[in-house]
Amino acid sequence: MPRNPGPSAEVSAEFTDFVSRASASPDVLGLVLSGSRARRGMATARSDHDVYVIIADDRAGVPPAVAEGRRSPALDVMPLSLSEFRAHALPGDTYAWDRYAFVHSQVLLDRLGGTITRLVGEKAVLDDPEAHQLVRSELDAYINSLYRSLKSHRDGRPDVAHLDAAESVPYLLTVVFALHQRVRPYNKYLPWELAHHPLGAPQWAADALLPRILRVVADGDPATQRALFATVEDAARQAGHASVIDSWGTDIELLRPGGRPAPADRAAGESRG
C-alpha cells in the first residue's frame, strides 16, 4: 500500500488521486516522491509533487493510470522502467545530475519487497570508493579554478578572476559533501540541507559556510577564497587526499592565506591554470 507522503504544504487532491490510480495498476512497481514536497519545510503553495514511477520492464509503454496528467501545476511525473531506474542518476547515466532528487525522498509504493527502497537508498548516499574518487577529481578541479582566479587577481584581471571564483564553487561544494559521503544538494536546498542535516564540524555549518560561498560568488574576494581553501585543504588532508594537493607543488602557495605568489613564468602552473 502507498505510504503517507509526509509533512509538507497541503497535499493536493490531484496528487492523492494520481497515487491511488498508479498504485492500483499492476504494472506500477514503485512510486517515489521527491522535490520540495518530500522535504519538511521546503514546500510552498506553488510546489508541485515530483513523482518517479517505476514500471515493470515487460510493460510496453506507459500505463494509462500514469500517462494521464503527467505534468500539471500539481504534478510532475517521471515514468521509468525498472531497468532504467536501477541506473538512473548514478555515475555514467545521462541523468547523473538528478541524484540529489533521491536524498530525503519518500518511497510511497514498493511492490518488490524492498528493492525500490534499496535502490533509492543507494542513490541517496556515496559509498566509500565513489566518495574517495569524487573527492580526488573534484578537489583537483576546485584547485584549478581557484588557482586561475587568484592568478588573475595577481595579474590585475579582476573580472575574469571573479568568473573563475564563481566557477570554483560547485567543485568546492561537491568536495565538501563527498568528504562526508553525501551527495551535493541542488543550490535551492543547500541552506536547508546544512541547517537540517548538518555536516558536523562547525566550519561546515550554514552560518559559517554560506556567507563565505556567497561572498565568493558576489565578487571573488581573494581573502575569502584563500580562507575557504585553508578549511578545505585541512579537511582533505585529514581524509587522506594530500597527494592531490601536493601534486600542485609550490603553485599551491598562491592559494593559501598569506602565501607567496607562484612565479608567473612557472611552466607547470601556467599549463594547469
What can be said about the biggest beta sheet? 4 strands, mixed
H-E order: HEEHEHEHHHHHHHH
Shape: elongated
The number of helices is 11
Parts with pLDDT < 50 across at least 5 consecutive residues: 4-9, 261-271
Supply the number of structural domains.
2
Helical percentage: 40-55%
List the keywords.
Beta Polymerase, domain 2, 2 domains, alpha+beta, four-stranded mixed β-sheet, 10% strand, disordered C terminus, 273 residues, 11 helices
Could you please describe the fold and organization of this structure?
It is a single chain. The chain contains eleven helices and four strands. It has helices spanning 13-24, 64-67, 82-87, 115-124, 128-154, 158-178, 190-196, 206-219, 222-238, 242-246, 267-272, and strands spanning 28-34, 49-55, 75-81, 106-110. The chain has a four-stranded mixed beta sheet with strand order 3-2-1-4, sandwiched between helices. The model is unreliable at 4-9 and 261-271 (pLDDT under 50). With 273 residues, it is an alpha+beta fold. It folds into two domains: 13-124, Beta Polymerase, domain 2, CATH 3.30.460; 128-272. Helix 5 (128-154) packs antiparallel against helix 6 (158-178). Strand 2 (49-55), helix 2 and strand 3 (75-81) form a beta-alpha-beta unit.
